[in-house]
Amino acid sequence: MPRRGPITGNDLEDLRKILGLSVTDLTFLFGFSMPHWGKIKKAADNPVRDPAVALLARWWLAHPETCPIHQSPTPAFVRDSINEILATDPLGEDAPLNGPVSKKDFGLSFGREMSAGYRWTRDNGKVPPVLNRLLTIAQEQINRNPETFWKEWIGLVEEEAKARGIDDLWAEGNWHKDLVAPRHPAQESANADDGDDGSD
Fold this sequence. Notes:
By secondary structure, this protein is mainly α. The protein has helices spanning about 10-20, 25-30, 35-45, 50-60, 75-90, 105-110, 115-120, 130-145, 150-165, 170, 185-195. The termini are far apart.
């Protein structure tokens, strides 16, 4: 809980730690730019200028369970949740991942290289903010729709891989591919018209 005086920059940093949020998440939560957050942290024991920010902080310090952004689950926790589902409800023999999800395939499933799954475990689950978002969505959907989530997610992964020219992501083992923006049909038609110089 904050001290009896007004909410300060130190109180906001305490709130970040209580909620288990990254700096990126905290700035998103309050709508701060990163430079603005830097000024607040530098102010330390000085009161926060915006009373609305102070009220939000005071509320979440008293009721952390109401914060709309929650601490992200670790990669290991999400992978264990997926494998727990697959142990009783496998995707089927024709599915690309029809057994327990390896660390290698787990990394690929979340848009990273094969080694990422191993690294996430070694580094105690430290991942960049975009991966925190993906893992949070995954765990929420596992909790809500355990029967359908993983099959739908793998379909989405394969759709994006094929759109990038990767025919078999699991065999190739990486997302690296030279991307060429698809040509819009209208543009192709325009280019064809430009090529007609009327010489006939």
